């Protein structure tokens, strides 16, 4: 028999995995939609309608919510959302742009805080894109997340971007741009500078670009470390400042000195991904989530 083309075989395996992952995502989304019963809907309505004295108070109320996707609250201790967003200067009146909402860990906290007096804009890939593209799956996942609760997400604006040409069309409209555990993807796709330039353009003068990123060892080569999910902090600062930003402040709120940054499956070896499954799971659980830089960049006022 003719020898199978290894490239063809690889493509076939990738498509089969994509179909399997899409099916799993849809099943999970159906389950989530079904979870939003009258009690949860009432909780969300009350949360969105409440008057809180500050973004921190609103966030603390949101953190206690039963509406949050299962498992999300378990990540609070590692991700410090209140401290992180307060450090970036979030206000209930802010216009916020969140890059790469993923499964909505931050989106579900930001949406109720900003629903009344602010604005939340998130980026997504096209949910109606090519069926053989993983980005289409990511776009569908965001769409399903937003659809599960119109009360929570009804006011969220979605900017559909092309991964290879990520244009936002938001000149000078935004107070705070968030790139949380996202910058390694930008570098891997060769579009780091493009994304940072779009963030700069979108912000008002004096606006903040908040970056949380898995932190590589200082001497790491970013081209290599990005494949593992990590980037060197000095490199990130230099790249972002060369786009016109000024580093306003750094925080160690998301630091983790136990992270040795040298795992078989990169940062995804650690929780919450545990890509190696049960292999050495207790060891990786004891390390915890990754060591992260938390950087507050400012777009200079004119």
Which residue ranges are poorly predicted, with pLDDT under 50 across at least 5 consecutive positions? none
CATH top level label: Alpha Beta
| CATH topology term | Rossmann fold
What is the SS-derived class? alpha/beta
Output the strand order for the largest sheet.
Answer: 3-2-1-4-5-7-6
The CATH superfamily title: Vaccinia Virus protein VP39
Beta-sheet strand percentage? 15-25%
According to DSSP, the number of beta strands is: 7
Could you say what the CATH architecture is? 3-Layer(aba) Sandwich
Q: How would you briefly describe this protein structure?
A:
The chain is of the alpha/beta class and about 300 residues long. The protein has helices at about 5-35, 40-50, 55-65, 75-80, 80-85, 105-115, 135-145, 150-155, 185-190, 190-200, 220-225, 235-240, 280-285; strands at about 95-100, 120-125, 155-160, 175-180, 205-215, 245-250, 290-300.
